[in-house]
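Homework-ish question, so no full write-ups if that breaks the rules, but can someone show me the predicted structure for this set?
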Amino acid sequence: MEITLGQFIALLGAALAVLLPGIGSAKGVGIAGESAAGVVTEDPNKFGQTLLLQAMPGTQGIYGLLTGFVIMQKIGLIGGNFLPLTTYQGLLVFSSALPIALVGLYSGIAQGKTAAAGMGIVAKRPEELAKGITYAAIVETYAVLALLASILMLFGIKF
Amino acid sequence: MAKVNIKKMSVIALQQDKKKVLSILQKLGCAEVIDVREKLNTADKEKLVTTQTKRELRELLNDLKFTLEFLSRFSQTKKSIFAPKPLYSEEEMRNISHREEVINTVKTCRGLEKRLTELKSMEMKLQNTMENLQPWKILDIPVESLGQTAHVVFQVGTVPEKNFEEFKSKIAEVSASYLEKIWEEREEAFVFLVYHKDFEKQVGEILAESAWSKQDLPEIKGTPKEALQECEKQLLEIQKERESIQEKAIKLAGNAPLIEVAFDYYTIVFERESAAEKLGATEKVFYLEGWIPEPETEKARKALTKEIDGIYIVFEEPETDEANVPTVVKNPKVVEPFELITDLYSLPGPNDIDPNIFMAPFFFLFFGMMISDAGYGIVLALLGLWALKKLKPEGIGKKLFSLIFLGGISTFIWGAMYGGWFGDLIKLPPLWFNPLEDPMRLLLFSFILGIIQIYMGLALQGYKNIRDGKTLDAVFDQGFWMVFLSGFLMFALPQTKGIARYVVIAGAIGLVLTQGRHQKSVVAKVGSGILSLYDVMSYVSDVLSYSRILALGLATGVIATVINTMGRLLGVNIIGYIIMVVLLVGGHLFNIAINALGAYVHSSRLQYVEFFSKFYEGGGRALEPFTIKTKYTKYRNGEEI
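A: Not a homework solution, just the prediction itself:
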């Protein structure tokens, strides 16, 4: 099988869609986890609550994987029938990966910081956990919007 | 259906009936006792210092809590969290609490804990000694003989290994001296050194040159070897004693249920004492003030007057400017679980209407749409149902699991609509349509839901304004906005497209003319009127925010499909099938967990940020009823009141 430049560019898009938000989430849950461990040193019973907050920046990575998977399905990598994409087709797919790739990277880190700050709420006023979660959720909005844009773009591209 | 009217209750009765009155109120558990001491002047306040009994009770509760923690460390039987709590009346609890075993157990546990700490520090000290002595094990002179005699100095110390040869030869030049390398460890030579005092200066110089570090051995008798053996022996004894303590504690752990009852009993008494502290009193009578929901007033009056003669009770409306009036909401049973969402945000404040009944349908819809998998819905609903039946939670727990149950039902409905059954594991045709095939349709539907909710928010604020007699505000601030926004929406429909322009202009004129009405000068009035039109952006962004319903719904479905695809790739042989099953179960469970969390968080956010911001102020305070709080037992209303 001849490998086209289009295929390569499209696959690069899929790779970035998984890679960058993955880094963002890893960093985000890492930041949040460090604070969580601090809170749990004082009160081990808060494990559940802190875990909830720590998990929040993890969604970007999932969104990225999701987009990457949709791309792989779209270009036929999964299913065994790799489409012979033209360069422009490849670029289209690549562009559609960009929103979640970049927003996922930065919002994951930002959400991690917000979640880490929310750990302070869990430490001092555990009954107000929902507010800490809401703050983190506001950051997540942009990852959700980026995912939406990426997915809509992908569904819109017709080969 | 809404906020419950709260009455202020005032009770005056004789001092001798105080215990009885408090006991009755505590059992009713519907009223909050107000601290009237704040209203007293300082002179009266001084008479009401914290009672001795309360302080004693607090200490006792601390002791009991410690004992329970201590015993749980040694308890052999793991208590199941599903075990039903034993049922006791107050009489039974009192009898148990006064049994001698209770106080004896507490005392013994305190003693054992103290001894354990002592043993721990003894052990540390011994281990320290042993560590210090270890390198000197083959030094065969008694440690106590180190030091100085009239003419000779005996010393032990270390020099860096690399200096040792040089050091040795230099010392050998000093006539009356002896040196022996005892041990070698981590680049250090452990050296025993003897020299005559006459050469102190000369030796001192050599020691300084070779970086000699003098070691002080622990104060012990005998050779290091003997001392080490002695230490070992003592460690063994400590271990033995610890085991015997453990045995004792395990035996005592059988008393834990008694301690639990005592803990609950004294908590009840403590609560009562705390309430008693809040009362106003003269020599003969006392005065109690409290908040009580209106529906409970008659019950309280009956219970009190039936038991006690010469009691005066009155229920009044709180004054309009009265601060600190607590909030109680009452909703139909279906809506009750959703109260949790509002409670976590903020309870309705004095001017608020109870938002729960308006918020609940939206939360229900959104939660289901965000997960939107019929299989996941069944799992969630069953989980909620199981927890409700098995754990029999109360309060927040009950609301939470009911919410999971209801959310599961909504998820099931939407999953069936979209045709998602564990992703594409079970292929059933959608009842409505598959959002993966036509995402724009679902996006539009999400926006429509958002628009409905935003209009409802505006309408509720309008209602609030009219209720407060600010009809004009309702027309200007909510009415004109609705006209203005509706104009834009009319562009979307072909039938109304023609007149849409005029509706927008009418709304805009209304807004420009009225939104600056609080400004002083005419210029400022017009200026802020025009600027207010820019708020349309915030409404647009509010509506766009509802696109998350589509995004999260798609995400669940696609992740589920990913899991299924990976599973299918594996299903080639027996081992593959086993891994496949594990992967499918684990993957779908993970997907349910992460998406249920996401659906809860984002549905809540839509309520908090997009909906509540239109009309809801919050800032209310929950009623904290003076009631019976038990942790380990269940309270049975006894015959005696």
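Now go work out the reasoning yourself. Hint: Residues 5-156 of chain A form a domain with the Four Helix Bundle (Hemerythrin (Met), subunit A) fold (CATH 1.20.120.610).
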